[in-house]
Amino acid sequence: MAVVCIANQKGGVGKTTTAAALGESLSEHKKRVLLLDWDPQANLTINFGFNPDDLKLTGYDVLMSVIRGNGRYTLPDVTLKTDNPLIDLVPANIELSQAQLDLVNVMKREMVLREMLLPVRNRYDYILVDCLPSLGLLTINALAAADSVLIPLQADFLAMKGLAMLITTVIHVKEKLNPALEIMGVVFTMTNPRTLHCREVIEVTRRAFGNRIRVFETTIPVSVRFKEAPAAGKSVLSYAPTSEGAEAYRKLAEEVLHEAG
Predict the structure, then answer these.
(1) What values do phi and psi take at 4, rounded to 5?
(2) pLDDT digits (tens, 9 = 90+) for 57-71
(3) What's the rounded Cα separation, in Å, for the pair 165 and 8?
(4) Cβ–Cβ contacts within 10 Å for residue 28, how many?
(5) Distance between CA 247 and CA 78 in Å, rounded?
(6) Of 85, 20, 75, 79, whose CA–CA distance to 55 is shortest?
(7) Exposed e or buried b for every residue in 93-128, given b needs 16+ CB within 10 A?
(8) Could you tell me if 133 and 9 are in contact, meaning their C-beta atoms sit under 8 angstroms apart?
(9) CA-to-CA distance for 14 and 65, rounded, in angstroms?
(10) What is 161-193 written as a DSSP string?
């Protein structure tokens, strides 16, 4: 079982798309996957056809149970079945935005998600945590609970500049909270290899970080299918299974599985 935190403090880099599509790709290899929506925007929840406003229970209710120590809800109580029998979802809604404040005065506030995951860690081959675009307490909780971090990175110079900040945060969490935490790697998203800028950013990143951090060989192309799929309540693998984007995520899953040995 592996807990993978999908994180980048920059928004719009494909974190949710990566969580959904990688989860589907891993399920094609008969892996049981839990997707945990850890973003108040609830895009991953929407991506699987659920309306966040209609949900009576979410991951936030479990978080509050842990904070209060009342044991009222655990993750199995709020987990939803998806159309894929191998994929379950812990949903989110706007209530999760309150969690940043709720956690401030909590003892061991960085370790709440780790405690939340205890009842389900052995039920799944992979738990993928879709983080919000921030390096606040929710993301720190995800890093403290994870075995590894997967970093989606847009093939853009400004996006690349923010990578160092995220890596510094990961190093601090590893030193202070989670010695087992590793960076699984960087995956380039929204790539257009026909442009010189895209090719240069990928090459510069490989040279700068390649000896210390894995940069996946697979790159995820720009595709309108990635925007259409959530509107249909599906991942790109379900919505457009033969598309270039779907095939790219299948290749990424193979790299991830190979990395896991």
Answers:
(1) -115, 120
(2) 999 999 999 999 998
(3) 10
(4) 15
(5) 31
(6) 79
(7) bebbeebeebbeeeeeebbbbbbbbeebeeebbbbb
(8) yes
(9) 31
(10) HTHHHHHHHHHHHHHHT-TT-EEEEEEEEEE-T
Q: Given a cut of 70, is residue 147 above it in pLDDT?
A: yes
* pLDDT band at residue 261 using 50, 70 and 90 as cut-offs: low
Give the span between the Cα atoms of 205 and 200, in whole angstroms: 8
Mapping DSSP to helix (H, G, I), strand (E, B) and coil, where does residue 6 land?
strand
Structural domain boundaries in the chain: 2-260
The predicted-structure confidence for 176-199, as pLDDT tens digits, reads as follows 999 999 999 999 998 988 888 888
Kindly report which listed range (9-13, 33-37, 142-146, 172-176) carries the lowest average pLDDT score. Answer: 9-13
Could you give the 3-state DSSP secondary structure of residue 95?
helix
In the chain, how many H helices and how many E strands? 13, 8
Pick the CATH number of 2-260 from 3.40.50.300, 1.10.260.40, 3.40.50.1820, 3.60.40.10: 3.40.50.300
All residues at 6 or more sequence positions from 18 whose CB lies less than 8 Å from its CB, including other chains:
6, 150, 152, 187, 189, 220, 249, 252
**What confidence tier does 42 reach under pLDDT thresholds 50, 70, 90?**
very high
- The answer to whether the CB of 24 falls within 8 A of the CB of 238 is yes
CA 99 – CA 159 distance, rounded (Å): 27
